[in-house]
Specification:
The chain has about 325 residues and is α+β, with helices and mostly antiparallel strands. About 30% of the residues lie in helices and about 25% in strands. It folds into three domains: about 80 residues, 2-Layer Sandwich (Uridine Diphospho-n-acetylenolpyruvylglucosamine Reductase, domain 2); about 120 residues, Uridine Diphospho-n-acetylenolpyruvylglucosamine Reductase, domain 3, CATH 3.30.465.10; about 90 residues, Uridine Diphospho-n-acetylenolpyruvylglucosamine Reductase, domain 1 (Alpha-Beta Complex). The chain is built from nine helices and 18 strands. It has a five-stranded antiparallel sheet. Strands 1-2-5-3 form a four-stranded mixed sheet, covered by helices on one side. A three-stranded antiparallel sheet has the order 15-16-17. A hairpin with a 2-residue loop joins strand 9 and strand 10. The radius of gyration is 20 Å and the shape is globular. The protein binds flavin-adenine dinucleotide.
């Protein structure tokens, strides 16, 4: 029996076939998932993932879609959607338990209401809690990894509790890589008056409103900041402000954002990012690394940008 039929036999209640993914991303770009699976709780997610591994069926996780570029050709295998894992609970007044599918904004608001400091600078970052932990999302010197206590993570065939140390958090990096899925997290914050936390979050949102006032759909910063440098400054200095390929354009207002002017394709974004990367190497000798992640079948151009051979990286350094 073909793999899709076997999957539907086992998990019919949570699977849908040939599901368009563009609307599930902040860029509004990308093709379809062969199957989209939306488990209803942590246990079901664990069972599904273990089954997929046993059956050797390819799978990928899509969180809030605010930091991904999805291939125009779509994604083969199963795309895991965790939006139903949306539990959010303040425990003993000091910690918050949040499902991976919760909006990060809900977690930030719940922590503020409970008087738990340490997440207020994450206000305004789109996406899910699971995506934020995977990317170690952050702003203004605060990252989610700073407040994470532990998480339920699927890896190597089963769900286990990972303590914070296991995540190896660094700038926009965690040890949650291919093959691991964050399903639920526990975060703890230092006690701060709720009114003060709300004031700080409002200030962060205002700063964001001014600095990120880009017209068009984006995925936030497309490149990581190299140590001690700002990617947007390097891109501006290389003359790439407002550079355009098709309907993908480097934002006027923030050169590290690429906006979809309406009907941009994944291939156009890849081409524009590659041109920006080449211009910055030419101008400053620095090879910018993508912050956004690519999901789906890679063509040569996408592979060169998102999974460059080590040799190429070394020769450009
Ligand atoms: C306007 C705008 C502003 C932004 N500002 C910031 C900012 O200030 N700081 C910042 O850090 N980021 C920022 N971002 C980027 C983005 O919001 C964050 O990286 C966010 O945390 C991504 O979460 P997500 O749920 O959308 O993940 P997705 O984009 O869906 O996924 C990102 C990656 O994580 C993987 N993933 C998602 N969920 C899981 C999971 N549960 N388990 C394992 N892997 C998973 C995906 O496979 C993918 O590789 C911004 C984006 C936008 C559009």
């Amino acid at each position: 029996m073909a793999w899709r039929a076997r999957l539907l036999q086992e998990f019919a209640a949570i699977c849908a076939v040939d599901v368009p993914l563009a609307a599930r991303t902040s860029w509004n770009i990308g093709g379809c998932a062969q199957v989209l699976a939306s488990p209803r709780d942590v246990a079901e997610a664990g069972r599904l993932l273990a089954w997929l591994e046993r059956e050797q069926i390819a799978w990928t996780v899509l969180g809030g879609g605010s930091n991904v570029l999805i291939a125009d050709a779509g994604v083969s295998g199963v795309v895991l959607c965790l939006e139903r894992l949306n539990r959010l609970e303040v425990v003993a007044g000091t910690t918050v338990v949040a499902g991976a599918g919760c909006h990060l904004a809900r977690l930030v608001a719940a922590a503020a209401a409970a008087g738990l400091g340490g997440l207020e600078h994450l206000a305004g970052i789109p996406g899910s809690v699971g995506g934020a932990v995977t990317m170690n999302a952050g702003a203004h010197g605060q990252q989610i990894g700073d407040v994470l206590v532990s998480a339920e993570v699927f890896s190597a065939g089963s769900v286990a509790t990972w303590p914070r140390q296991r995540f190896d958090f660094a700038y926009r990096h965690s040890a949650v890589d291919t093959g691991a899925v964050v399903l639920q997290v526990v975060v703890a914050g230092a006690p701060v008056a709720a009114a003060e936390l709300r004031r700080r979050s409002r200030a962060v949102l205002e700063r964001r409103r001014v600095s990120q006032a880009v017209a068009g759909r984006s995925a936030g910063s497309v490149f990581k900041n190299p140590p001690g440098q700002s990617a947007w400054r390097l891109i501006a200095a290389a003359g790439m402000r407002a550079a355009r390929v098709g309907a993908a354009q480097v934002a006027q207002q923030h050169c590290n954002f690429i906006v979809n002017l309406g009907s941009a394709t994944s291939a156009e974004v890849v081409e524009l990012m590659s041109r920006v990367q080449a211009a910055v190497v030419e101008h400053s000798g620095i090879l910018l690394q993508p912050e956004v992640r690519f999901i789906g079948t890679m063509d040569t151009a996408a592979r060169r940008l998102f999974a460059p051979p080590q040799q190429m990286l070394e020769s450009r350094e």
